[in-house]
Amino acid sequence: MSYTNQNDSTDLAVYRGAVVTFERYEEFKAAAIQVRDMVRNVPVTDDPDTLKAAKKAVADARKITDRLNAERIKVKKMVLEPYMELEQKVKEIESIIKEGEDEIREKLEAIEVKRRIDKRNEVERIWDLRAPRFIAGNYLKFNDFADKIGASLTNKTVPMTAIENAMVAFLTTTSSDLEYLEGTGERSAEYIETYVGCLDLAQSMRVVDARHKHMESLPKSGVSFIEIRISGKPNIAAAKRLLEENEINYTITKEN
């Protein structure tokens, strides 16, 4: 396969320009000046013959310019015809090359997508091997780590060793945090659940403690029972089911 030498100084398109001449230019120009000067010198009077003669002279001159413009358009088309043919050929070649560019771009994009998927799968495989050795493996998923390191997970400039080191650091830090939360007592489950969502030890404890503080600040009602009036067998059955699911004691009395 060979290509045109890009350094070849030979002209790719040759213009052999035809000379366009206006043989009677001076003659037509002089006539136009004569008509213009005549119109300028026409007195503004009510003499209809004078105005009619001037109007006819302008109309005759207009016929000449109409003819000249028609000739100009014809010559322009003739002059531009070779250029338009060249433009069409260049665009045809450009379109063919663009088709090739589009196809190779699609193939390169497909290769890149596959590379990213393969790398992510390999990182996930390493996670599955390493995570069970850490406490964090009991609570966190691969996506937690993937979200943490972001685009560098599949970036081809980031080597696998760097990602694996980051994974070990992530598992070590989160395991230390989770081990601490496991020993915090009755709120440990809440702490851990919140921590898994944010991966921030201080924030998770702060959120849970604030929630408990808010609940404790609510006034105690002191009500030991609530009376609810329900009619209709389907409604009563639904209410009983709801109370039983929430382990709430209840009694049912019928109105007289």
SSE layout and pairing:
Blueprint (H helix, E strand, L loop, with lengths): L24 H17 L6 H83 L11 H8 L10 H23 L5 H11 L2 H17 L15 H13 L11
Helix pairs in contact: 1-2, 2-4, 5-6
Short description:
With 256 residues, the protein is an all-alpha fold.
Q: What can you see in these coordinates?
A:
The protein is mostly helical and 256 residues long. The protein has a domain at 25-90. The chain is 67% helix and 0% strand. The chain contains seven helices and no strands. The protein has helices at 25-41, 48-130, 142-149, 160-182, 188-198, 201-217, 233-245. It is elongated and about 120 Å long. It starts with 24 loop residues before the first helix and ends in an 11-residue tail after the last helix. The relative contact order is 0.04. The mean pLDDT is 83.
Radius of gyration: 46 Å
Number of strands: 0
Q: How large is the share of residues in beta strands? A: under 5%
Count of runs of 4 or more consecutive helical residues: 7
What order do the helices and strands follow? Answer: HHHHHHH
For the termini, the CA-CA separation is 103 Å
The mean pLDDT is 83
Oligomer: single chain
Sheet with most strands: none
- Summing up helix and strand content along with how strands pair, one would put the structural category as mainly alpha
Coarse morphology: elongated
Q: Specify the helix fraction band.
A: 55-70%
pLDDT < 50 runs, ≥5 residues: none
